[in-house]
Amino acid sequence: MSSNLKQFTREEVAKHNKPDDLWIIVDANVYDLTRFKAMHPGGLAALVDPEVAGQDATDVFYSLHRTEVLERPQYKRLIVGRIQGEESVFTAREPGDLSKVPYGEPTWLADGYYSPYYTEASSPFLKLRQFVDEYIYPDAQAREEDGKRPDQKVLDKMAELELHAMRMGPGKHLQGRKLMNGLVKPEEFDYFHELIITQELSRCGARGYGDGLLGGKVIGLPPVLNFGSEELKKKVVPEVLAGKKFICLAISEAQAGSDVMGLQTTAVKSEDGKEWIINGSKKWITNGTFADYFTVGCKTEDGFTAILVERGEGVETRQIKTSYSSTAGTAFITFDNVRVPVGNTLGEEGGGIFVILSNFNHERWVMCCASARSQRSIIEECLKWASQRKAFGKPLTSQAVIRSKLAAMIARAESVQNWLENVTYQMCNMSYKQQASKLAGQIAFLKSYSTACGQETARDAVQIFGGRGITKTGMGRFIEHYHRTIPFDSLLGGAEDVLSDLGVRQALRGMPSNARL
Ligand code: HEM
C-alpha cells in the first residue's frame, strides 16, 4: 500500500487547514477529513482546531483513540497520501504476533528470557496465538456486544484442533486424537500445554465469552469422564468434546453455595428403582442456558449424589443477568419431577462429595491460569496508555504515582505466574491422588491470591485510566470490562476467604505432631 500512496510534504498538508478543506497527519499518513469531520464522534471542533487542522496530529490522536480505530475500513479510506520519505511507526499487531511490551508476555515467551518448564514440545502451541487472534478474538468481541453464545463455527474450529479435549487436561480421553493437527502426541500432552491453552484463550479479552466457550464442560464433564458408566461416556463424551453439545456443572443453589452439604435439590428413586426423580433448583450455573447436559448435585437417601441430567421434560433454564455478558449463559435452573435413568449416577450413590471435590483442584488451577494471563493483558494496556497519554504536557509515566501503581501490578502478575508454573510442575509430577492431598491447599491459596491480585490490579488500572476505565468504548474498554468482571473470578470455584481458610486448614492438618518452638 505504502508504495502506491501519493507523497506530500508537511508544507503541502499545512495548506489544507480549513473546515471545507481539512487534512491531518497521523503516523506519517495524510487523512482528508473534509467530509468526515461532521461525523467525527469526538466532534467537529477537535478537528478544526488550528493545532490540528493541516498539522501532524499523531500525539493527540493516540492520546484519545486506540490504534484499532485507524484499522477500520471506513477510516482507512480517508487516507490520501503519505509524508514524503516517512514511514508509519505504529503498526497494528498481526494475528499471532507476540507482544514486545515489557511484561506483556510470560518469560518463556519473552524475547531473550528462559524458562525451566517449557520445552520444544511447548512451542507448537504458539500456533494457538494465531488461531485465537483469527477466530476467537473477533467472535468474542462481537458476542460481547450482542450477548449471544459463541458461534458454532468457532467451536467447530476449536474441535478440529482438539482444543475441547485438551482443555480437560492430560488423560485417556486424548488417546487417538490428533492434537493441534498432530503437533503434540497425546501421551506427551501435560499440564503446561493446558496452561498455555487456557492462557491463550483468556487473551480474547472478554470474560463472559471465555466462559461461554464451553467453560461449563471444563467443570461439568470430568465427573462423567471419571465416574460415569461406559455407556454414558460413549453417548456424552464424544459429542461434548466435538463442541456439538454443551454440558454444565449444576451444584450451587440460591440457599447454599460453598456449603455443599446444605444443598436442597432432591433425587428419589422411582417405585421400580429404575429412575431418579429430581426436584429443586440451581443458581449461577455457567453455560446453563444453552446446556444439553447437567451434572447435578442432589440430596439422596444416602447423602449427596452426582447425577447426569439431559435437557428434557421438567428442566427449565432461565438467564441470570450478571455483571458480565450473557455470552456465558449463566442460568437459574429448575428441575420439576425430572426423570433420569439410574444409570446416569456418577460414582457411588451417596458419594457425590468425592465426585465433586475430586475436580476442584483442576478447576481452580484453570482459573489461576486465566487470572494470571488477564492481569498481564491489563498491564500491557496500562503501560501503553501511560506512555502515550499526555497530561500536564508530559506522558503519564512521568508521574511517580503512576509508576508506583505499574510496579505493584507487575510484581503481582509475575508472582502469580511464577507460583502457578511451580504448582503446574508439581501437577506434572504427581499422581492425581498425590495432587489431591498435597496440592489442594497450595492451589486454594494460589487461587485466592491470584484473584485478590486481580482485584487490586483492576482498581489500580481504573485509577491510571481515569474516566476511561469505567467507559465501555474507546481507550479504556478492556479496563472497564476487567474491572466490572473481576469480582466474579474471586467467587467462582470458591470465594477468596473460603479458599484461604482451606489452605490454612490443610497446612494445619499437615503439622508434624512433634513440632514445637
Ligand atoms: C483519522 C482521524 C480520526 C478518526 C478516524 C477519528 C475517529 C474517532 C472515533 C471513531 C472516535 C470514537 C471513540 C472511539 O471509539 O475510540 C473518536 C473520538 C474522539 N476523537 Fe477522533 N478521530 C480522528 C482524529 C481526531 C483528532 C485529530 C482529534 C484531535 C483532538 C480527535 C479527537 C477526538 C476526541 C476528543 C474524541 C472523544 C474521545 C473520548 O470520548 O474519549 N480525533 N474519534
TrEMBL record:
- Boundaries of every Cytochrome b5 heme-binding domain copy: 5-84
Cite the InterPro entries for this sequence: Acyl-CoA_dehydrogenase, Acyl-CoA_DH_CS, Acyl-CoA_Oxase/DH_mid-dom, Acyl-CoA_Oxase/DH_mid-dom_sf, AcylCo_DH-like_C, AcylCo_DH/oxidase_C, AcylCoA_DH/ox_N, AcylCoA_DH/ox_N_sf
Q: What is this protein called?
A: Cytochrome b5 heme-binding domain-containing protein
Q: Which Pfam families match?
A: Acyl-CoA_dh_1, Acyl-CoA_dh_M, Acyl-CoA_dh_N, Cyt-b5
Q: State the UniProt keywords alphabetically.
A: FAD, Flavoprotein, Heme, Iron, Metal-binding, Oxidoreductase
Q: Which family does it belong to?
A: Belongs to the acyl-CoA dehydrogenase family.
Q: Could you confirm whether the keyword Lyase appears in this record?
A: no
Originating organism: Marasmius crinis-equi
Output the superkingdom of the source species: Eukaryota
Q: What cofactor requirement does the entry state?
A: FAD
